[in-house]
Amino acid sequence: MSGLTIDDPIRFADVLISQRIIPGDTLLLADGTYIGDWTVPVAISGTEAAPIIVKPQNPGKVIINGSLTINGSWTHWYDLEIMDARTDRHLITNSITMNYEGTRLHGCLIHDLHSDGVNWFGSGVGEVSECVLYNNGFRESDESAHGHGIYTHNTNGGQRTIARNIFNDAIGDYAFQIYSGGDNYLRDYVVEDNIIPDDPVHTGGGLGLINFLYQRNIQYGNYCQQGRYSGANANIDGTIKDNFFVGLSSYTVNQDTVPEWQNLVESGNEVYGGQPANRTGYTYYEQPATKSWIVAFSKSARWLGSVAIFNRDSADTVDVDFSSLLTNGNYLLRNGQNMTETWAFTYSGNAVSVPMNMWTAAARIGDTAQALVFPIFGAFVIEAA
User: Fold this and answer.
1) What is the layout of strands, in order, in the sheet containing 160-163?
2) Which end of the chain is more exposed for a tag (fewer CB within 10 A), N or C?
3) Is residue 58 part of a domain?
């Protein structure tokens, strides 16, 4: 069929009606903006050994403007921009809905959607990684705010991975909410290497967390609560390790508010400023003047990695060591709160003085601009120039 080679890309509408897609196909999308509320039928399904891969002919040049419901299983989506340009923030859509086993999003820019950024329920393995999510959610008629970056539960299990993402400015509240208010388990989650500049994080509720790993995440401001709202002893086993919490009002499992876990391991967590550490597994430090963290990407074809930069004294620039990620050459930093903003630099093996006084937060489409986190804390993706 068409769309299997760079010389013959396919349009998104043609993907959804094709009768010729089989497991193992790679579908290259033609550049362009595809407007509509799109539904991928069950018939477009791969297998674990032969998933269907959907990606742009040119990374970053395909925009899905509306919503995307993925009903097929074992489909992998790469390097798309998925957003909604409609200005009515009271409109509620499916945003990105993925309830079937094996769905993965890699390297996607997900913003201004009219529900959660990703609604991820059902059960089964899947992944959201190396994505940038901001300004997702909606408002009720009374102007109350709803919607998170990712909202998910997984009652029957199968590993779900949330990794190496940047989360900003969920209209409702949480960067991600691994939660259920009903009879659902929260099984088999790996949450690692995410950068969360100023949104809270929540996991817990339903029938409790089982096989939960939370590691190497970098969070600034607000709060982080793990296992809250679960019933007494409903949280079975969790590991919370090697995370970096900067200036949080509260963090991880607070003994006064979180039900007990049957088995919980906490180790290697670093707390900079904010609420002092009062639990084993957390070390408290005074806030340094500056600090940066580099996260390497492996799946996105458009971004090489991400960087979080803490800038306590609002200095105009912060020196960042990119040696763990970059070789000599020309690169762009792209603002994780407003992806239209870039800064070009040349890396030659020395520390790079990154400007911190030039960035803005993107206004939500149909809403008002939000207060800036910069220049205290910034999150960026890095791409080749």
Assistant:
1) 26-29, 52-56, 75-78, 103-106, 126-129, 160-163, 186-192, 209-215, 235-241, 261-267
2) C
3) yes
Alpha carbons 254 and 227: distance in angstroms, whole number: 10
Of 237, 270, 285, the residue that ends a domain is 285
Q: How many distinct structural domains can be found in the chain?
A: 2
CB neighbourhood size of 167 (10 A): 30
Domain extent at residue 28 = 12-285
Amino acid at residue number 77: W
Give bridge partners of residue 346 from the DSSP assignment: 330
User: Who contacts 233 (Cβ-Cβ below 8 Å, separation ≥6)?
Assistant: 259, 260, 261, 262
Residue 6 belongs to a domain:
no
The answer to the question of residue 265 being in a domain is: yes
In a domain? residue 213: yes
To the question of pTM greater than 0.90 for the whole model, the response is yes
- How far apart are the C-alpha atoms of 84 and 82, rounded to whole Å? 7
Q: What are the helix and strand counts (H, E) for the chain?
A: 1, 36
* 78 and 197 part of one domain: yes
Domain end marker among 251, 285, 319: 285
Integer CA distances (angstroms), 152 to 149, 175, 189, 236, in order = 10, 12, 10, 18
Going residue by residue through the chain (385 aa), what tens digit of pLDDT does each one get? 444 555 668 898 888 888 889 999 999 999 999 999 999 999 999 999 999 999 999 999 999 999 999 999 999 999 999 999 999 989 999 999 998 999 999 999 999 999 999 999 999 999 999 999 999 999 998 989 999 999 999 999 999 999 999 999 999 989 999 999 999 999 999 999 999 998 999 999 999 999 999 999 999 998 898 998 888 889 999 999 999 999 887 766 544 455 578 999 999 999 998 766 567 888 999 999 999 999 999 999 999 999 999 999 999 999 999 999 999 999 999 999 999 999 999 999 989 999 999 998 898 898 776 666 668 999 999 999 9
Contacts with 271 (C-beta within 8 Å, 6 or more apart), sequence order: 245, 248, 251, 277, 282, 283, 284, 285
Report whether the peptide linkage leading into residue 375 is cis, meaning its omega lies within 30 degrees of zero. Answer: yes
Q: How many angstroms separate the CA atoms of 15 and 77, rounded?
A: 13
Q: Which amino acid is at 296?
A: A
